[in-house]
């Protein structure tokens, strides 16, 4: 289905959970159940559903277990309607964590970004302490853990983005805590020999949430676009989902690092002007452009699986169509334009 033809949330979630060939191949290659920890957020539900669909296409029967506080009960109901098991509780509660079923495969998605500056102790507990608890609880599992390209710090757009071998230069406590998360997982991958892969993601987008949705909403409303973060990477969330599942096959000790991002470095001004064309709206800008930005180079992932299925212009067209129709949005700005690391 062309993204611009999607009219309902049901169609959108079906598209976001349609597995690419690499996801199906991964579900055939690995054995055992998969637990998704912190699965109630923006990306988790369709990722868990994709694992279910990809396993079925691979001819493999396994339990898919989604774990979250599920502050929105409708998310839990939706997952269960797709055949995904759910467990509800606080992962920082070690009694609850210990009660979870053993799973040979774990995808760690829990973390704290928005509001991080408002409660820094909780941010560090979620982003650094919890990974150590999870790594010890699932010492015998294969773990794929989400991180962020924010750990790199900004680089010139002329470089093509940070690569996995670059030294981290995190700015602000959020990014520092995310590097702390990586260090905890790396430590336990070393001492326990737990196979792990750490996924530095910049930035997953769908129609209800993401950098491009933020920009489209501002263009539609006639709000001036802040050019403080002048360049960006994006990837269709369905492609990020497929690559996450495929990455389970790459887990190793010492832990492997892998960037997940779109292949292009996008200029925010150009993106907004294209959205203005699609939405039939004039575009206004504020602030000065900067040469450096938070940018990931995903050449290593592209070498493994080829380019993402959804090109940027198709994604822009689909988002503009959705926004013009008044489609549902999550109302959670990404704040990608923040340069001082204070989220």
Q: What portion of the residues fall into strands of 2 or more residues?
A: 5-15%
Poorly predicted regions: none
Helix segment tally: 12
Residues in helices, as a percent range: 40-55%
Report mean pLDDT, rounded to a whole number: 95
Query: Which oligomerization state do the chains in this entry correspond to?
Result: single chain
Q: In angstroms, what is the radius of gyration?
A: 19 Å
CATH fold type: Rossmann fold
For the biggest sheet, the summary is: 7 strands, parallel
Shape: globular
Number of domains: 1
Structural class from helices and strands? alpha/beta
| N- to C-terminal distance | 36 Å
Superfamily (CATH H level) name: NAD(P)-binding Rossmann-like Domain
Order of helices and strands: HHEHEHEHEHEEHEEHEEEHEEHEEHH
């Amino acid at each position: 289905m062309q993204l611009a033809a999607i009219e309902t949330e049901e169609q959108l979630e079906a598209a976001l959970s349609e597995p690419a060939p690499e996801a199906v191949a991964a579900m055939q290659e690995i054995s055992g159940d998969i637990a998704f920890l912190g699965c109630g957020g923006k990306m988790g539900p369709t990722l868990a559903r994709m694992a279910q669909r990809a396993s079925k296409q691979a001819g493999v029967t396994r339990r898919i277990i989604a774990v979250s506080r599920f502050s929105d009960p409708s998310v839990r109901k939706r997952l269960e309607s797709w055949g995904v098991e759910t467990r509800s509780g606080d992962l920082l509660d070690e009694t609850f964590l210990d009660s979870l079923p053993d799973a040979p495969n774990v995808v760690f998605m829990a973390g704290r970004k928005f509001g991080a500056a408002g409660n820094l102790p909780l941010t560090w507990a979620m982003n650094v302490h919890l990974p150590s608890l999870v790594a010890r609880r699932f010492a015998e599992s294969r773990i794929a853990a989400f991180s962020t390209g924010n750990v790199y710090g900004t680089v010139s757009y002329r470089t093509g983005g940070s690569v996995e071998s670059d030294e981290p230069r995190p700015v602000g406590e959020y990014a520092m805590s995310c590097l702390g998360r990586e260090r905890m997982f790396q430590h336990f991958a070393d001492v326990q020999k737990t196979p792990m892969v750490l996924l530095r993601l910049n930035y997953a987008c769908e129609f209800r949430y993401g950098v491009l949705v933020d920009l489209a909403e501002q263009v539609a409303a006639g709000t001036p676009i802040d050019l403080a973060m002048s360049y960006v990477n994006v990837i269709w969330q369905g492609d990020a989902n497929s690559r996450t599942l495929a990455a389970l096959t790459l887990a190793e000790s010492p832990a492997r690092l892998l960037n997940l991002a779109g292949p292009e470095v996008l200029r925010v001004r150009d993106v907004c002007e294209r959205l203005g064309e699609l939405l039939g709206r004039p575009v206004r800008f504020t602030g000065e452009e900067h040469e450096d930005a938070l940018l990931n180079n995903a050449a290593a992932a592209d070498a493994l699986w080829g380019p993402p299925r959804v090109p940027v212009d198709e994604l822009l067209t689909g988002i503009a169509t959705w926004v013009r129709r008044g489609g549902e949005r999550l109302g959670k700005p990404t704040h990608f334009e923040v340069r001082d690391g204070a989220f």
